Amino acid sequence: MPASKPLKKTRPPDPSVAQHFVPAKKQAEASQDGGHGETLYPEDELPTSADLAVPASRGDVERLFTKMSQMQTFLAGEVAKLGTELRGEIDSLGARTAELEDQAAEITQAHNDLAEGTGDLAKRVSFLESKMEDLSNRSRRNNIRLRGLPETVSPKDLNGTVQGILRRLAPDIPEAHLLMDRIHRAQRPPNLSSLIPRDVIFRMHYFTAKHQILQAARTFQLDFEDKPLQLFQDLDPATLRRRRAWRPITEHLSAHDIPYTWGFPFRLQVSAAGRQVALTPSSDLAAFWAAVKCPPLEDFVAPVLPPSSFPRLQQRWTRVGITSGDG
Q1: Confidence class of residue 151 from pLDDT cuts 50, 70 and 90?
Q2: For residue range 117-126, what is the model confidence (pLDDT) as tens digits?
Q3: What protein family is recorded (predicted)?
Q4: Please, which residues have CB within 8 angstroms of residue 178's CB and are 6 or more apart in sequence?
């Protein structure tokens, strides 16, 4: 008796795969929604085990590929639509970015023009201030400031009182050369105590007489009613502020027995090795100490000059063009 062939074991159908390959009858009866539904069958017409056991036909496969083609067409349309919308957004952002870049370039140029104009104005203002200070000092060239005269001396007695003080100070000056054009008391500074008498300012008619009086005041101690008196050259307040700021320099020069004089426009003059060395607000302080052969002054901070130039802005971007195209 011939040996019987072993029976082939049938593999149970896989519902997850077989549901796509169903008879045409069931396929035709299934609800169609263009590939957008969650299943090919209504809930009450799910494929049975008998349907799942039927192998897929050629028509079933063609219908499956048709649905896949429809889905591909649908997805391609959606992608193209999204691409068109996205390109429109990019073009809009590109146009807005270009507009912002143009505005930033205009603002940068306007700032640079303003900085250049402000720098020129700062230089002109500094020059005019220097000229005004120089003119003010020249107009005070014949003025002398007397400090310490008591307030008990009335304004009408100022002329005679000061004339008597000057005769004691410089008896060699002829009486006619002690002529004064005007005399008055200075305004009281806000921080000056009321117990301290105000300065007396008088203008000598002859410059030579003024110069002789100031020279004599350096070696002669004046007093009035046992009150010490001091005589100074009358100067513009701006010049006095600058001299006070440079007081450490003058004290340092005096400590090293280096004579100096003040010049106009504002500068400090020192005679070194037979030549004049001038220190101005814009001079190099280290070069000045080297020229006068004096040890440098430590920890001295020179007054800060007003800026004559202002920073410019630079464009930190490059224009990038966005070209729209098809596809």
Answers
A1: very high
A2: 888 888 898 8
A3: Belongs to the transposase 22 family.
A4: 163, 166, 167, 204, 209
* Interatomic CA distance for residues 261 and 297, integer angstroms: 18
Whole-angstrom CA distances from 190 to 155, 194, 198, 232 are: 21, 10, 12, 21
Residue in this structure with the two tokens 């007093």, named with its chain if needed: 223
Nearest to 216 by CA among 168, 263, 184: 168
Q: How far is residue 183's CA from residue 180's CA, in Å, rounded to a whole number? A: 7
Helix axes of 207-217 and 158-169: crossing angle, nearest 10 degrees: 70
pTM (2 d.p.)? 0.59
Phi–psi pair at 185, nearest 5 degrees: -90, 145
**What one-character DSSP code corresponds to residue 215?**
H
In Å, what is the CA distance from 31 to each residue of 44, 45, 165? 11, 10, 128
- Using alpha carbons, list the distances in angstroms from residue 100 to 91, 107, 114, 286, 319: 14, 10, 21, 49, 11
Classified as helix, coil or strand, 231 is strand
| Cβ atoms within 10 Å of 29's Cβ, excluding its own | 12
Q: CA dihedral in degrees (221, 222, 224, 227; nearest 10)?
A: -40
Residue showing tokens 């920890």: 299
265 cis-preceded (ω within 30 degrees of 0): yes
